[in-house]
Structures are given as C-alpha cells and as structure tokens.
Amino acid sequence: MKNVILLIITILAAGCQPAQEKSLEAVISNEFITAKLDLPDAEHGYYRGSRFDWTGVMPELKYEGHEYFGVWFKHYDPHLHDAICGPVEEFMALGYDEAPVGGEFLRIGIGGLRKPSEEAFSRFGYYELVNPGKWTVKKEPNSVLFTHVLKDAAGYSYEYQKEVVLTEGKAQLVLKHTLKNTGTKAIKTQAYNHNFFTIDCQPVGPGVMVKFPFPLDTAIRHPALNVTGQLMEYIAVPEGAVQFVDFKGLGNRVEDYDFSIENKNTRAGVRITGDKPVVKIVYWSSELTQCPEPYIDIIAAPGETFSWTTTYDFYVF
User: Angle 240-258-313 (CA atoms, 0-180°, nearest 5)?
Assistant: First the structure.
C-alpha cells in the first residue's frame, strides 16, 4: 500500500505543466480531435529558438478524453532550444561551415542565422536570427497552413509550406510538407520529427511501450527496459534520459517509417507513419516524453519541389 501511495504522489508531481493561454495560437478540431497550435512570430511567438521548425508547435491535442502533447520541460524561455511541444521537426543546418564569422547560414522553417565564431555548429545553442523571411498563416476549422518564404539567406531561397490537418471522419492528424527551392544553390539536408509525446502526462515508466517496424538489435539494452522483438517496454522508471542512436535493421524503406507508442495504464496509443524512406532513427525519452525520431533525406535542386507527409492515427484500447 505504501508503494502505491508513493507511485500516485510521483505521478501527480511529475504531470505536465498546464498550457498557457496565448494570443498567437490557433485551435482546430474535427469529430474526434481538438488541437491547439502556437503560431510563428519573430517578436512574440511562443517558440523563437534556432533549432526546431517554427511550424506545427502543438501544446495540446485531445482525443477521447486523452491528452497526447503537453509541456514536458521544466524551464521556459522563448529562445531555449527545447522549450517546445508537439510533433515538431528539425532540419539540419545549411551553409554553416562555408559562412564567414558574422555571415549567415540557414535553418529551414526558421530563417537566416548569424554565425558568431569559428566554433563548430551546435544544434543545442542559440543563434541570432538576421533574416526571418515572410510568414503567412491560413486557418480553417480543421487545419492550419503555414507558408514561409525566404530569400537569399546564405545564398539559399525557398518556399516552405506545412499544412497541419485533422482528417475528416478519422482520429487522424496529417502533416503535409512541400519545400520548393527558389534559389540558385541545391538544398541537400536531413529532417526528422522529434515527436514529443506526453500521453496523459504520465511519467515514463512501467506501462509505456514503443513498437518499431523491425526487430530491435540486441545492443538496444537498458536496465529500465525490456526489449523483445520489435517492442521496447519500460519495466521501471529510468534514472535520467534514455537515448539510443545506432539502430540496426534499417533498409532505406518507406516501411521503416511506422512506429507506435502506447500507455497501457491509461489505454491510449498513437501510430506514426511516413511516406519517405527512413535513413536514420534516434530514440530519446525523459521524465515525461517518449520520442522516436525518424530521419529522412531532403533533396531539391534549384527549381525543384520536395514533398513528404507524416500521419498520426490515435486510438484507445
């Protein structure tokens, strides 16, 4: 009984922080899902960091009484690299190594950033935004279309669109992307979705599981995990973060973009699929969030458009 009481206290203490009311947000819904999105703005946006794409920041998504995204981090600063929620994406930097000190380099979905020194690029640092480009946002009852037009940032130009859509008649969220290269330099980079799931604001521990699209390598081991076949199940609350970066079994197949996360304690789950081959997978979890991170290649020659889609199917059991 004592252990049960301690577990309940731990769960209550570790819950997600309540989402703040913001003026720069949009609410979308369909028959099954309601979601909130923070909107991009260089001066007043909730997230103004230099790591993640500013579109699709989602502090709340509710389905059948379950909450799938929330504030999982302990400290907030608009420029902090991980003060962000939802199925957010990061594009690898373009043009950093060749940029002179004081010059610009590019991060898609953010803009042109200043290179402050000769030090190597840090994904977790903050870089000054010097070319924000132009943002437009079109809101519909069940969708938000973000458009970012960037001209001549470190010699690159593009038109990037992301449409966040709740599918009519389904418990489904779809992220539809297009990146048109309007510049003179080829765009060749990688992107991934961090997938900051915080299912029902429960601590990551027993009852939480992640299913991968292929059998997991025997090197994927942790004392808090039971790894069997394609399943990674938590059998204890881990001390600190859990991270794996070297997954075997990838075959550069579209079929490798298929993950499921379930919380057996609250009976809520989500399946994540994509339409591009996975070239790399990182898995990371902290106290409140579980994050399979599938990477894809982004390649667009001048004048070309690259498109991709990510789909989330929510369910209860």
Answer: 95
Nearest one of 121, 148, 125 to 42, comparing CA atoms: 148
Cα separation, 24 vs 54, whole angstroms: 12
CA–chain centroid gap for 293, Å, is 8
The one-character DSSP state at 199 is: G
Q: What 3-state DSSP class applies to 54?
A: coil
Q: Which long-range contacts (CB under 8 A, 24 or more apart) does 253-258 make?
A: 253/277, 253/278, 255/213, 256/213, 256/214, 256/281, 256/294, 257/213, 257/294, 257/296, 258/213
This model's pTM is above 0.85: yes
Dist CA 114 CA 117 (whole Å): 9
Of the candidates 215, 189, 203, 232, the one whose C-alpha atom is nearest the C-alpha of residue 90 is 189
For residues 41 and 30, what is the distance between their CA atoms, to the nearest angstrom? 26
Euclidean distance between CA atoms 124 and 121, whole angstroms:
9
The pLDDT tens digits along the chain (317 residues) read: 334 334 433 443 446 765 555 658 999 999 999 999 999 999 999 999 999 999 999 999 999 999 999 999 999 999 999 999 999 999 999 999 999 999 999 999 999 999 999 999 999 999 999 999 999 999 999 999 999 999 998 899 999 999 999 999 999 999 999 999 999 999 999 999 999 999 999 999 999 999 999 999 878 899 999 999 999 999 999 999 999 998 888 888 999 999 999 999 999 999 999 999 999 999 999 999 999 999 999 999 999 999 999 999 999 99
Q: Report the DSSP beta bridge partners of residue 90.
A: 192
Instruction: Please give the Cα distance from 266 to 202 (Å, whole number).
Output: 9
Q: What does the alpha-carbon distance between residue 177 and residue 179 come to, in Å, rounded to a whole number?
A: 7
Q: Give the tokens for residue 54.
A: 């500013």
